[in-house]
């Protein structure tokens, strides 16, 4: 069997993190989210893949190549225009034969669920029981037969949602060619399912575990999920008087300096300098070539490669892009005084603690304060002592 993974989209809800990378290449636990998905499918027994790429596709091609490094075969199809999921799948026509697995590239799923799903007959859609079904397409079934698929509704008909995992045979490509543009101006894969539903051919299969990575704060959930399952791997140097409580991955060439306290699970990439006297708290993932320095506290955050947070800083429950530099004394708040869920642009994150999303190459002067739920665009420069909140567009200069 072959597996098609849709990885062509920009992921606009992830901006500014996708300003120079495709969404599926955003790191989770120091690996691109697409790599986690690929490894899960490989563990389920599939070794032949088609990646549908488009936006910044070369980053995906350069990283995964032909699949040899992963012990599999990867072919590529390019979606030349960003015209929806049906259009993306149609790009893979001719590269698959008979029955195949289709996955959206921005999910976390267990290999055991994939193995169980592969025992179903095509066409089949994977479903999941959600606590907030209004954010997804809801699947209404009678037994396993799908009766209705309702896209995002404020009053959903149940809590079983479409998880973006499908079993199809090549008949689907003929259906895709008959579709019209949706109200959003795209060719929607869910529209292609209507014929199957009308003829009572579409079945559903409930997954035990699934995580969608649609918004930046979902990265923290995925990061935490992936970091619960690794063992210690120490390739770098740990100086004397370092205290480590919990699992740690430390990359080659990295140094943890004296006086540092680490609460695992924690992943630190290659060629990093941590400390002295840093405090790294659980579920933090630090990319390659980073500096987390003296008296800096980092909690439950994702730090992209080549970023410096070197002196008297606090970063909690945040996602920080690559090439950033935080001036001494800069802090990111992660908790509202009223203890209500943090909102970003008015959107509820469903998280009581969430700090900020910071784009690439952001330079913050000394003693800057960043409020909860802030989004800072790429290449932003903030003067010393700046107070930053709300949404800051790319290339903005804050303060004098």
Overview of this protein structure:
- It catalyses: alpha-D-glucosamine 1-phosphate + acetyl-CoA = N-acetyl-alpha-D-glucosamine 1-phosphate + CoA + H(+); N-acetyl-alpha-D-glucosamine 1-phosphate + UTP + H(+) = UDP-N-acetyl-alpha-D-glucosamine + diphosphate.
- This is Bifunctional protein GlmU.
- In the N-terminal section; belongs to the N-acetylglucosamine-1-phosphate uridyltransferase family.
- Its EC number is 2.3.1.157, 2.7.7.23.
- Residues 262-377 form the Mannose-1-phosphate guanyltransferase C-terminal domain.
- The chain is of the alpha/beta class and 400 residues long.
- It folds into two domains: 2-214, Spore Coat Polysaccharide Biosynthesis Protein SpsA, Chain A (Alpha-Beta Complex); 232-398, UDP N-Acetylglucosamine Acyltransferase, domain 1 (3 Solenoid), CATH 2.160.10.10.
- The chain is built from seven helices and 41 strands.
- The strands form nine sheets. Strands 14-17-20-23-26-29-34-37-40 form a nine-stranded parallel sheet.
- The chain is globular.
- The mean pLDDT is 94.
